[in-house]
């Protein structure tokens, strides 16, 4: 099977829809005689016991005939797209009797092609249980796509467009978030709304979603005539009229229960909350008559789940955190909790790293960034040696959070940033630059295979005075890059190991750097393999 992975809001479901839409347009898809899209968040789909439960059609005779033919052919020519593995209970994949377990194991429709979309939180289970033939990551927007979307919304208002460009250029944290298309949609809407009202623009994911929710609630208050004019609108959720605030709290409670149980589709919602603008209704797959409800996006449901936790007494917050903090599917919830509460209810001291050498997950760095408090960052990360682990699928914003924590912390970092695109490397540097001068230090910096050619001169913004090992192998550095590296190397008085092998630099560029390295008395390892150097140069 094929596993399609991506961060929340990056466009996995859109990708699944596009495969269906282009079935008759793309040669690779046209070889399939049948394409079936299965939304795994649907409760009835999760309870399916046979193919007839997921191959649905209003014409039951046609449905029966298709199922019989598909079974007879063993699934040959069938593309089965299972969207949202992270939106259903993990037991669905572990239970041998489950239809989806049997589909992926090949005991049902062995000749069919299965394509599964998921967040990274559910990837480990799928990869361990079945070995995907191919893994694809949905990357989301590049810078040009962000600009194109903003232009499509702002239209001919060039002043507004220019101001938005200045905003994202001066706010690298927001720029890092916008590589997620969903965040771009939210940010553009929030920016236009808040620029018109001269309000401060969000700089964290929590602030972004908080402002989105406030805007939707303000529209609801005006549309329902609860508030007569815009000048009387509440400016925070806490200022909402009591009846509306209760509806928000009721909705948040539903979101919390659903998120804990990995439920995204609800048969019922509190009556008053349906009109608030956060959910959508659709006919149920099998009945075709009864409505079911879901949040506009799973990330919005997770925000409301976090909001519910933030409203609980501190003892309950602590109990929930101690029980659920390690659950992979709740990582985004805790990101929002960090932004809403700064972990005060939970007691952020419980997050403190222990030991002289500690690996950290990117999720912790996201949480720390959302708090926007230096004391929390420095205390949690401590003063030992810290290494980022498990960064196979991270967004540019995650790397900005890493740089932010590097800049604020007082610990020593062992950074392995291998095979990264340029945007991710830039985000680490920008995150650290916001906090310069840093109190932390980096002892190991490994860039093997990363696209750092245009970033070399900005490496001086990182705390490099204590660096002992630097690896820039396979980074496609040319002579100009080596020249830019010369003044940076002079800052590294403790450098003991340097690997700059396998870079397309000419003799002149390499010799210039070697002259600088001759002054480094601590340098004991130098790898120049596959550089354009002759004996005289050496």
What does this structure look like?
By secondary structure, the protein is α/β, with parallel strands linked by helices. The protein contains 22 helices and 14 strands. The strands form three sheets. Strands 8-9-10-11-12-13-14 form a seven-stranded parallel beta sheet. It has a five-stranded parallel beta sheet with strand order 2-3-4-1-5, with helices on both faces.
SSE layout:
Elements lengths: L1 E4 L6 H10 L5 H4 L3 E6 L3 H4 L13 H13 L5 E6 L7 H4 L4 H7 L7 E6 L4 H7 L4 E4 L5 H12 L3 H13 L1 H6 L3 H16 L8 H19 L18 H19 L18 E5 L7 E5 L2 H13 L3 H11 L6 H11 L15 E5 H10 L2 H8 L3 E5 L6 H13 L3 E5 L5 H12 L7 E6 L22 E3 L7 H11 L7 E3 L7 H11 L7 E3 L11
Parallel strand pairs: 1-4, 1-5, 2-3, 3-4, 8-9, 9-10, 10-11, 11-12, 12-13, 13-14
Antiparallel strand pairs: 6-7
Helix pairs in contact: 8-9, 8-11, 11-12, 13-14, 14-16, 16-17, 17-19, 19-20, 21-22
Summary keywords:
single chain, 538 residues, alpha/beta, seven-stranded parallel beta sheet, five-stranded parallel beta sheet, 14 strands, 43% helix
Summarize the entry for a quick read.
With 538 residues, the chain is of the alpha/beta class.
- What characteristic shape results from the CA principal axes? globular
Helical coverage, percent range: 40-55%
How far is the first residue's CA from the last residue's CA? 51 Å
Biggest sheet features: 7 strands, parallel
> Which residue ranges are poorly predicted, with pLDDT under 50 across at least 5 consecutive positions?
none
Spatial ordering of strands, largest sheet: 8-9-10-11-12-13-14
How many H/I helices?
22
Using only C-alpha atoms, the radius of gyration works out to: 26 Å
Roughly what fraction of the amino acids lie in strands?
5-15%
User: Structural class from helices and strands?
Assistant: alpha/beta
User: What's the average pLDDT?
Assistant: 87
**Number of E-type strands:** 14
